[in-house]
Amino acid sequence: MHAPDGFYSDSLCLVMDLACTGVLTYSLKKIWGQINTSEVLLASAVGAFGFALEMANFEVTRGSSCHFMGGVFASIVLGPYLATLVMTLAHLIQVFIFQDGGIMALGPNMVTIVLVSTFGGYYLYSQLKNLVIEPYGCYISAFLSAWLTLLITALTVCGMLSISGIEAFSATISPMLGPHVEVGIAEGVLTILLMVGIQALSPGRSPDHLIISDHQENSPRSVRKVAFALLGMSFLVSLAISPFAARSAEGLKIFALNRTYLSSHRIHISYHAPIPDYHLPGIRNQRVAKILGGTIGTVATFFLCFLVCSLIRERVYHEPGTDPVYSEAYHG
Questions:
Q1: Domain boundaries defined on the chain
Q2: Over the stretch 264-307, which tens digit does the pLDDT of each residue have?
Q3: CATH 3.30.200.20: does it fit domain 10-259+275-312?
């Protein structure tokens, strides 16, 4: 889903850029001062995990690959607004450090990679959960929402290609939808496994209430346990899984290469990222280069999310001459 510059029309990119800026601003307003210190750590770990997850490409039919999204899982754990923020920050790291997606195409890529999975996935999850009998409602709903979100993402890309005048909607459905059906099943299973793991680390609590969305109290200790577990999994993915992921290009990149006219008469921003394609320059062994590049990206995403979330976390007033106190319960 990381479309390069020149892939979509300039007018579509501009509209999507403005729309995504508005959604991100609204999300920041909704969560400003509403997360506590331990939740900052959890949000940062989820962002790092989402970054690492998108590096692992799945080999699919027709010689192309697709990757996991992670947005549905992030929205279930963090809520759609905070999930949108951390997944946006992860995408910015992908673009500006690893040149994974175009700068002009930030808006369209944000829609397909972030917003469809965070807002769309969370809406599907919350609606499906009301239809399924507990105690397995959250797991079944998580699987279905993750799978359906991948399909909606593929259809969204088809729609934007049609609007851009690149290809008719009907002509792109089959090559786009087929691979995402397969990867969507895998992402659904992964989402269930992650939620089972969260419940094991926080016994007695639903895995979709780690971030306070209904004024319930959470144990800072259990939140930190989940955060450290996710951070460890982030490094596991970047160190042990991503280097062995599919080497074939994403379906969108293959589509672009097969249509050389895509970039004609479109704005193309010439930008050279420091670590292109996640391979650290100067290292001949490609797997080692990707391990180091992916690890740098995972660490960079964690600290960027931690910095931004720390700036918006909740604070309480303190007496003059004393140190600020960060509340674990105040939601003013």
A1: 10-259+275-312
A2: 556 667 778 898 888 888 888 888 888 888 899 999 999 999 99
A3: no
Q: Can you give the pTM of this predicted structure?
A: 0.85
pLDDT tens readout for residues 153-166 = 889 988 998 898 87
Is pLDDT of 247 > 90? no
3-state SS, the chain, equals CCCCCCCCCHHHHHHHHHHHHHHHHHHHHHHCCCCCHHHHHHHHHHHHHHHHHHHCEEECHHHCEEECCCHHHHHHHHCHHHHHHHHHHHHHHHHHHHCCCCCCCHHHHHHHHHHHHHHHHHHHHHHHHCCCCCCCHHHHHHHHHHHHHHHHHHHHHHHHHHHCCCCCHHHHHHHHHHHHHHHHHHHHHHHHHHHHHHHHHCCCCCCCCCCCCCCCCCCHHHHHHHHHHHHHHHHHHHHHHHHHCCCCCEHHHHHHHCCHHHHCCCCCCCCCCCCHHHCCCCCCCHHHHHHHHHHHHHHHHHHHHHHHHHHHCCCCCCCCCCCCCCCCCCCC
